[in-house]
Amino acid sequence: MLWLTAFLLKITYQQTLFYSAFTDTTLTNSENWSFVGADPLSVIQLCGTYSIVGGFEKFAFGVAATKFLQLPPHYKMKITITFFVIDTWDANEYCHLYVDENLVFKQLYDYSQGQAHICGQTGNHRQDSIQEIQTEFLHSGATAFIELTTTLDQIPFDESWGFRNFRLFLYLCPSGCLTCTYENSQAECQTWIITNSFYTDIQYSSFSTSGWNVLNGDSTKQQCSMIPSVCGYGVCGKDTQLTITFVQLPFHTRMKIKFKYLKIDSWELSDQAILYVNQNLRWKNSLSVFDQYLYGVCGGSAQESFINVELTFPHYLTFSTITFSNTLDQAQTDESFGIRDIEIFVQQSICGDKIVQENEECDDGNLEPFDGCFNCVYSCADGCSICNQGTCLGCYSGWLYIRYASTCEKVSKITQINQDTQIAQSQSLSICYDYIEGCQECLGGTCILCKQGYQLKHQVNVCQSICGDKIITIDEECDGYNCSQCNFYCPDFCDICEFGVCQVCQQGYYFQNNQCIKQETASLCQPQCELCIESVCYKCQYGHNLVLGQCQEICGNNSLAVYSLEECACNPYCSDCRFGFCFQCGESYQLINNTCISKCGDKIVQENEECDDGNEIEFDGCYNCQFSCSLNCQDCQQGICLDSCQYGYHLVNDICMTICGDMVVAGTEQCEDGNKISHDGCYQCQYSCPLDCSDCIHGQCLMCDAGFVLYDNFCTNICGDGILSNLEQCDDGNQSDGDGCSSDCFVENNWICKVDGDCTYVKYPTIISEYIMQKNQYQYVQISFSQPVYTQSSINYLQTIKPAIVDLNETLFNITIMEVQAAQQDKATDVQYMLQIEIFKSLDYYPILEIMLTEQLYNDNQAPLMYMIDYLQLKQPNYITEEQVQIASAFQQINEVTVKSLCLLTILLMLLGNALSFWGILDALQEQSYLKYINVLYPQTLIIYFTSSQVLSIQPALDTITLYKNEGKFLQFPYLSSYEKFEFYEVNADIAEGFRVEVLVFATLFGFYLGTLSAVKILSKMELWEFLQTQPKLVRLIQKVKRKVNAKLRDAKGDSLKDTLRACTWDLLFMALLELNVPHNYQNPRSYICILIAISILIATLVILLNQVSGLKSWKKQNFYQFWQQKRDIFQVTKKFLILFVLVFCQYQQELQTMILTLINAFYLLYVIHFKHFEDSLEYVKSIIMETSLTIFTASTFVNWNILSNYLQYSQRINIAWIQMSILVSVLIIFIFIEIYNAYLLMKQKILESREKKQKQLEKERQLSEVKITDQKEQLSNQDNPLNREKTIFFRARYPSKIQPQKI
């Protein structure tokens, strides 16, 4: 708690109110603010009881308030404003606050947030509101450019804004810091010192541009709005470079450069600003990616941005050259820039940065004592008695010197052992009584384990070092390179060596790669000797004579002289000298008459030159490589003017020159007016005539063109004189508003004026942008116009439509323009275009689409478009990453495989006699497939998952049949357009399109039924074939198959038909309800037929329900629980009808639709749990699982409501979609396991029944065999009896048969 309190106190202390404006109760002036699109002298007015800046009919479209402030060192800024929203702000209009390159505040306001009428108009949708704006953000620039504006697009009479109570708070840097960041402590930021600063003044009069070299640009100071800068609009741009060189910088390790870069006009994405430091690229940026101001400040019509840049990088040199450049490729009037607030900081040395600097002895990067360097000062290691620069040379008593590591290790000796206690004895077992070098563990004073690098010698109880293991121990000098028997050895022919490294070789040898190599004896002959034997020259080269064994050169005067005498040598700048004559000169010299003369103009000062500036300009201080005085300079030394310049001249770079703008006419100047306004009589210190002046002398106009009048040396048009001038759009001879030509001679909206002043009221066409739909990752917007329009140019008008997403980089979206009805030249049509928008980024807000037309359109009366720009609010993009697409596709594939597996299992179960599972699974899968029609904007992951619902559809098969059977017109039906989510999935609302599926299903079943009847008849005939009478077993098999087929046919007439109808209920009810809810063309008789079919389906459903309800009288025979247990069909059909009714008729009320569907599923779940209408327990479990999953899914769908989109991010909705998909897939997987178990039980039952049947058959055969044996015995006995011989056939009737009749 204490640290939290301290932190809050720290923040409160650092936050300082630095500047405030318009806080008085009554405002009187603009307080030196600048305004775009408004007059600073008339911006104050009352809004109700408040005195505000702007307000009703003042600030609207195209207006911005700006302020430029100089700030103390700080790292964060906070701004608070009281903002007034006046009149009919639309739902897509924002308030913007820019501070330098950042859009620090953006808020959507509309009239619905208004409290009451304050100062705007009264009426519907005209409510005003007062909003308190507060924003906090990081900022460390020396100045701040602030712009407050809006995206309003109507006139001030319709919607406007204003503000007051502007306050700016700063979080200041710690005391003594000239620059800092949020993380810096006072000690850290004080290490930065400023070495130079340029162009930091905010007053134009005191702003200085000296110091930097400007190449291909104007170095005079410029002004953009209220902001002075070097370079600026129209004077610096393509190929402009700013360069400066610093010498004798303080010793440092890092450099920081801060500056404000003014990006002016229409920079493209490929245009980049560049900064080099010592020819190393330190900054390169495409400034078009930053937030651009809505309205131009100092350039043309393009947007601009002022960017604060702070660069920090390693730098150690005491000199530095800094260069600004760019990659601009257009004229300076189209792309330009300015720079100001340049500050150069260097960071002084810091102990601990591992860099040894001028005031440090060492720097090991830590503050650990006794490691050789502490606090950047050499220190001895622990136990060291003597050291040199941190290297230990000896140790104190009780410490052991480790030579190879130059460290000391403490020696532990135990001199007293307490043998009276068992504890001491046990301890003494592991301690050596006397120190044994290299021993790691002792037992009873005897070493039993040596350290690494040693081996134990048991006989003498010592640890002996192992030579050759590359581990250096205390008694080894080395173990490896330059080592012999673990002792250093010197290389051969070495006189002095240390640690195996030779320091001095023997005489006649030189040192190389730690070896002493013998020097080869060099020849003592001269280089001019051609034949040399044992240092004796026998023949000289051409041009030399052999004299007493020496080669002497024949000089140019034919006299002999000793080689290398001056009379035979060329000057030292000759690279090819022969006999005293030079044939080639060195670099920077030219050969004239066999003599090397320095080149004047190569910027290299040679011995015969006083200077060399690389040009041939006179009076610039150096001319013909000799010092020269500048023009009008009386006294100069070495090209530097020492006297003051004449009046009107200024000393710039040691040259006296005139400066335009100093209000003194001198040199080639004709005039001086102290400004840069063209056509005011004097421009760039030369006379210029005012515009529309027909006669002028020395910048003074004597007569204006027709239609203009001379006033204060300006030719001003006369509005209302009936003469149309080039400054007027119209002139109807009066200064009245409302007649088409306004009081200032501009054409009013919805009027067309001719050259003769005649104006006609014509309604202007307007652009209409309409949001159509969102499908997957695409959004569709339609562009149309309120009237038929045409273009006057021959270009394709599609190329003049410039759509963009406001405040979104153009690389993050793609907009495709599709022609529906193109604009034609000189022919008015209902022009229509469609935009397909794809955004490649997930956004947590609704983006704004800006549609800009760069080419005018006209209606039949030649009236132009009223507005060339329109804004439309889009929906949040359905954007997901590639990884999310793969995961969603995996879910979809799992679902498809699961559904197919379930279908195969249920078919198997139906063949095994369990048809209930087949129809139950089919019903559940159908209900899941209808979840996609809930009219909410599902995340893209869930949309991908729902594509697997097509597995159950036979529509692809029908489409294939239709494709290949062109003559089968009965399979093709007209397309009836749907709406909302049904339109998204391209559902054909024509009932015949869906009804053909059900017809095909029933036709297939009926065909199967007829085929089965035919099979029974064939089997009956086969039973009577004569050749089969000899095969009784085959006959019995045919009879058995016939009996089973007849049994199945009896079932098909009852339950099978009923189950099929129940399964088709989903599609039948859906098609009927959808058919009744879509608009029809009642002029076509087919529409009545389709509606009649739909009504018939609903009546049939109602009859089924009534038949179920008709059994209510049976309550007297059954209890309530048993009755509703048997009446589950009424609940199932009712549930299906209600779900489909809500899906179809509540498409436009997504909140109501979701809540009702959740209640329906929840109530049916309670019914299933309470009444348990399934006799099979597994079917009961499946039903509960399915209904629970549907209830959870529909209940969680509320997260996709439009009203919650501002509270839930798209990523959160995707996470919830993962859960929903997991639930749906899990249900199907559970069903698979249950059906596998069902199949197992059925097969087990079949096997048991088969075994029991075989046992009964065996028992029967055994009984028959016993009876047969008994009869045979009786027959034998009867044959022996004489009485039996007299018996006839009728005699047997007297005796009962011993074969008992059996029930078949």
TrEMBL record:
| Source organism, top-level taxon | Eukaryota
Where do the segments described as Disordered lie?
1262-1287
InterPro entries from the UniProt entry: EGF (IPR000742), Myxo_disulph_rpt (IPR011936)
Which residues are in the EGF-like domain? 379-409, 431-464, 567-597, 628-657, 688-716
For this protein, the record's SMART domains field holds: EGF
Q: Does the keyword Transcription regulation apply?
A: no
Q: Where is the signal peptide?
A: 1-18
Does the keyword Disulfide bond belong to this entry? yes
Which residue spans traverse the membrane?
Answer: 999-1019, 1086-1109, 1154-1172, 1184-1204, 1216-1243
What keywords does the record list, in alphabetical order? Answer: Disulfide bond, Membrane, Repeat, Signal, Transmembrane, Transmembrane helix
**Basic and acidic residues bias spans:** 1262-1274
In terms of NCBIfam families, this protein maps to: myxo_disulf_rpt
Q: Know the name of this protein?
A: EGF-like domain-containing protein
| Protein's organism | Paramecium octaurelia
